[in-house]
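Quick one, T. Sequence first:
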Amino acid sequence: MTAALLCALALLAGCSGGGSGSGSGDGSDKGRRPSGAHVAIRVPADAPTISAAVSLARPGDLVLVSAGTYHESVRIDTARVTLRGTSRQKVVIDGRLRQANGVVVAAPGVAVENLTVENNTQNGVLVTGSAAAVAGLPGSGGYDTGDEPVTLLSSFLVSYVTATRNGLYGIYAFSARDGVIEHSYASGGADSGIYVGQCKPCGVVVRDNVAELNAVGYEGTNASGDMYVVGNRLVGNRVGLTTDSDHQEKLLPQRGAVVAGNLVADNQQPLTPEQADGGWGIGIGVDGGSGNEFVRNRITGNADAGFVITASADLPPDGNRVTDNVFAANGVDVGWTFPHATRGQGNCLQGNTLRTTVPARLTTTASCPLPASSRSPSGTWTRPTAPAGIPFTDVAAPGPQPEFPHATTAGATLVPSAPELPDTARIALPSPSLLAGGARVRIA
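Structure tokens:
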């Protein structure tokens, strides 16, 4: 074969053959693609930037990124690509507050593993089937996609990722289903550290993550059906966890999430970004969400309330079950409050360890099971004044986090078409010892 023909064939992969790069750039330069059925494309050895390497990848390939700080926004449009850092601490995608997203996953079966994303004006990692979301999320809330039809991206994995100091969400799965967010750390999220929105049925599992120093640790909005939040450490945010219905997103109302085995503690941290809704000192909040199960969570040290059910619009919270949780040292352990005409029905409690409820005697008057039509009572309590927040850019930097095992030697990750869903009966109550230090929750 002639040299001219070889070069012509090689144009698809960049005829120059590529080479090493500085670890920064806009991804416009392409290197060479190594031969083979499924390959590891190394950055910067085989391509100068992460974006250039991703553009060379075919389904089943691994993009393996060496230590460095990469000033680029990486978009993955090829299915079943694995993007992995060789070091979670030392592979950093830094937006320098000049770009919306660190990593955008817009294709099915993609895994993002073992790296840090920081200083993006919107999201650290965005996983979405929404073209409008990829284009920049119109709307002041960051998630209103207008008249765009709902298209759910199916199958994803975000694992061993550190997402810190991002202007909306650290890890954001929006209009996406059948995926897992695990073993990750989120801090400094100006809205929330981890967010799942607009999916029905979701088939999403959020497990064994740490969220701290965010406005909200975890938020699920219009995220319904086979939606599991299990075994996470949600400590030291302004609000630990919320599940809610919101007209700014489609597929409302929210219903059918399972929140089990989480440590939800001390969510009264002042050195956090202040969310627009102004929440502070709350462990778990339900706003217009229905049919959710809250099972064997340890909820402690939240200055306002451990668990709140409310409705802020025309969407009532109905049929939520709060069972076998342990509450301690909260302002109020369980509070139901409906400041507007909208009132929930069929919400109930059973088997919890707690001290105070508002209204009083909920453990008797709202004991499970209840008729679905049983109207939920409303009460009020003296609520602490939220301190002023700080800019998300000023949140403390995270310490070292656990590394992906065998990051440099393992092949590409095969992301299943749907994750195995947890058996709630096997998820244990977190131990009180986990309140100390940065100990992680482990799922049984």
